[in-house]
Amino acid sequence: DCPYCWSEWIQPGIDAGRMYTVGPGSYVLDDNNVWGNHVQIVERSRDVPWVDGFQFFSYASWKNHQYFEPAAEKFFTSRTKIKPLTYMNSEKPVSPVLTLEKQDSLTYKITFSSPVMLSVPQWFAVYRSEQAQPDTSTDKIIAVKYGDSTFTVYDQFDGLQDYNGKYHYYATALSRYWIESAPSNVEESDDIPSFAPTVTGTYPEQGQIIPVNDSPVFTFSKTIDTSSVKDAVHITPTAELAAIQWDDALKQMTLIFAQPLAFETQYTIKLDSVIKDINGRMLDGNGDGKEGDSFVLTFTTLPEDFLPPVIVGAYPPIDSLFTDFDVSGTMSVWFNEELNDTTLTADNVQLYHDSDLVESEWFHYVVDERSILTVQAKEDLLPDTDYQLVLRAGIADTSGNARAEDQTIEFHTSVYHNTERTMIDDFSLPAAWWQPTGSGSTHGVVGGDTKWGYTKNVFLPASNFHKAAYLKYHWKYDPSNPGYLIREYMPSTDKKNVEFDTTYVLQVYLYGDSSNNTFRFCIDEKHGSSWSDHEVSQWITIDWKGWRLVEWKLSDPNSVGSWISPDNQLNGNKYRIDSFQFGHDDSIGTVKGTLYLDDFRLVKKSSEPVGIASSDEQAPRSYNLEQNYPNPFNPVTTIPFQIPEAGHVKLTVFNILGQEVVELVNEQMMPGFYKVKLDGSGLASGSYIYRLSVNGHTFTRKMLLLK
């Protein structure tokens, strides 16, 4: 009935053996806050017999959600092969020949090739099975290779696998149409040794002091036979266990006590040697490689605590109204002791605009047994507006002592909002940042202890992904090169490095450690055609804890610091990133610590509205994203759009790879007609996609930049 509808052609395609991929538009799941539905959609699609693969129309959303690794873990866990394209060719290739060579008890060398001369390359799959009879539909593929030569792969075990019998190996050849040959010869390994289980980690650590209501955790190297544990846990002095909980892998055991432990008491937990893994190997408690000995953990509980947690610092400050809070800023509060994380709830941590609750997220991190709480609104705050962060009574320490009164922190946002945002590095993926000691300018540090890296343990509360960069520092005076400086350098060749002018503001979120060390930005300055100078911002003293947005307003001549520039002025025609720099003063600065950084970016600010909203009588009746003009453009163009209802608006520009290059709007807006300018001076010539998202509606258009 509908010859031009794609649905009419599914069954004929299935009958012909055609391949179909299906999948969600990931950006739609993102816009509707149902990102977690990916797994269910993929699993449901796998139940459809004619589905052969997946596509996700991900744009930059997978990158923003840091979803590549989770996707691999959740629904792309195994090597696989494409179904045979029999409608194109049905000829089976010749079966390969395989040899198996034992390297040691845990390593096998597998060599395979075609027994005939190949005129074109083909695929080879290597299988491993516990059974002697090959079954290509269920046996595990351990390697896939492509070519026309002899291949070698190694299958290496760590001795911690649950299987300790013989494995059987074979290979198949697959043509360019994925027609699979019959299995090769099957080769058998010796029994693969599986070592005795050990305890690889505990909470608390040996000798640690912990709260009385904490639950000890033991992590084992192998899958444990949980039935062997029931009568093998002994606690001195006696403490009644309410439950023993296991993780899904049966490798981590948590002891839940029926009552809190006694205060200021030394406890010993002994795990008997009768604990076994699922292969029947007994516990190797002392890690000497021989099974049959127990494991002993000793720890002490804290003295009795009757006092609730006390706030010892905050940004914005508690005792005065802060009147210039950035609309993208974060709020941090630090306490004199560790908080009970379960008391940090949506009812106890709240951000208000007048009486309206503002959607926000928080991040709780414990440093030196003291809690730091950072709160961030999910979207930019309104400019020139009063806000209140309220920490409710009921927030408690780990001993159960709850705060008796609410704490309100009032602040007023800046008159400026962001009209343009260009991400330099969101630290979701490693860039070409050097290690600190790679720069000759770095001095006054212990090289082995001063490092740059990435972590998933500390992150911005409202970020789309949970990852940040870190700088671990250790200062040490060197009389042969006096002074202290860490230059964390980004090469000019890094694809993330961008060129810009002084109409921008440089920003980065810095997780402070209240160390009184210092931070500044450094940029390269271009004069004519030569990058001939370095300029730096003024030093910023890191006197706060938790996340805080720091910036350099490049148009402010008083914001320029002094380093190796001949004039300490921003008078070039272009700029690019050189480095983050960190300093130290022996009289006040902490010697060792770790700082974290996230969302390094350029923004443009304005105190003017983004666009001009019409009166109620003239308000638009529908949502619309119009074509930019001029188009093609060089380098400035205007993007018109209209919204009939108030809502949070995001207007973003992507390159053809789906990578976000500019965020033009990200804020609450009233109904009306709007025009937003895009300055493409820092972008390469080519096609771009711009996307408008508001109130569950999404619109996209293309534009062309020609330089």
From TrEMBL:
The keyword ATP-binding does not apply. It comes from the Bacteria. The keyword Transcription regulation does not apply. It holds the Pfam family Big_5. InterPro entries: Cu-Rt/internalin_Ig-like, SbsA_Ig, Secre_tail. Keywords: Signal. Residues 629-703 form the Secretion system C-terminal sorting domain. Residues 196-301, 308-413 form the SbsA Ig-like domain. This is T9SS type A sorting domain-containing protein.
